[in-house]
Amino acid sequence: MKILVTGAAGFIGFHLVKRLAGRGDEVYGFDNVNDYYDPELKYARLAETGVEKSAVEYGREAESSVFPNYRFIKLNLEDREGIAELFKKEKFDAVCNLAAQAGVRYSLVNPYAYIDSNISGFTNILEASRHNAVGHLVYASSSSVYGLNERMPFSARDNVDHPVSLYAASKKSNELMAHAYSHLFKLPVTGLRFFTVYGPFGRPDMALFIFTRAIIENRPIDVYNFGDMKRDFTYIDDIVEGVVRVIDRPAAGNPEWSGVSPDPETSAAPYKIYNIGNNSPVKLLDFIESIEEALGKKAVKNLLEMQPGDVHATWADSGGLARDFDYRPATGVKDGVKKFIDWYIKFYGVIL
């Protein structure tokens, strides 16, 4: 297939590009390589896929020196004309939209970045997909949509009308927008609610990266809600495996769906929502202990109250993916953390 991956210089997008190009798909990636976090890490990811920093220029296509079936272009989600032109020219079979303004806490200080990228930008993807007969649009949602919901594990059939951050609200909006386009234009769309993804080349604003760097540098780590938190940490290889399986099978309508008793997970339209997580929440303090074991160093913990926009726990009910795609994550937290730290030490030349 010819597949577009947006956010191709991002954490998940980079790993997905490698997987798809490695299996022989014709892959096209775009990313705006913004400075939300260190762009040099994004350029390092691109270099791993054969796209050198010197070749990255806005609106200019770059070919990979590693994968002959991979091309990359620097582009903004908000660039309506640029995206329309790209879709018209390339005629993608499938699109995986991972590009977005990420981060819960950043949405408290820069809300317009989320409206521009996650709302306006996603509209551009939807419009381009429906006007160019894209066979399947897969897009990133987030576990953050569950907001104030306290029923565990989180089910894709649960109500998600009480977000606690603008980031979460923008992801919920994406799900609503995607359903509207699926209903109106019969566009097959699948939304994936990601649960705390981690692993090599991970984001520097995520807990694993922050904790690892601080412990190595002998600085205290901030532990919110006094450590009384749980997260459904999901290793990147398990995430990519699930995403690839979903891309390969376009969403179809549920013939048993009823507006009298509506199922939020499906629709009469070709629309699906899935949780994609490890289905095994880990206590934050146990997660920190795994980092300490892998580094051979103890953390100095600065225990703090809960942050605004944060939630006490996440726990994915990934039964839908297991049922429809035989999806079963295989990487435990200790193994996953060790793989991340091995990468971190090598990438940054750390001597412990």
Order of helices and strands: EHEHEEHEHEHEEHEEEHEEHEHH
Number of helices: 10
What is the CA–CA distance across the termini?
45 Å
Summed up, the domain count is 2
Q: What would you report as the Rg, rounded to the nearest angstrom?
A: 20 Å
Global mean pLDDT:
96
Silhouette? globular
Counting DSSP E segments of at least 2 residues, the number of strands comes to 14
Major sheet: size, sense and barrel closure?
A: 8 strands, mixed
Low-pLDDT stretches are none
Kindly report the name of the CATH homologous superfamily of the largest domain.
Answer: NAD(P)-binding Rossmann-like Domain
Give the helix/strand layout:
Layout: E1 2-6, H1 11-23, E2 26-31, H2 39-48, E3 61-63, E4 70-74, H3 80-90, E5 94-97, H4 111-131, E6 136-142, H5 166-185, E7 189-194, E8 197-198, H6 207-216, E9 221-223, E10 230-231, E11 234-235, H7 236-247, E12 271-276, E13 282-283, H8 284-295, E14 301-303, H9 319-325, H10 333-348
Parallel strand pairs: 1-2, 1-5, 2-4, 5-6, 6-7, 7-12, 8-11, 9-14
Antiparallel strand pairs: 3-4, 10-13
Helix pairs in contact: 1-7, 3-4, 4-5, 6-8, 8-10
Keywords: NAD
InterPro entries: Epimerase_deHydtase, NAD(P)-bd_dom_sf
Domain NAD-dependent epimerase/dehydratase: 3-255
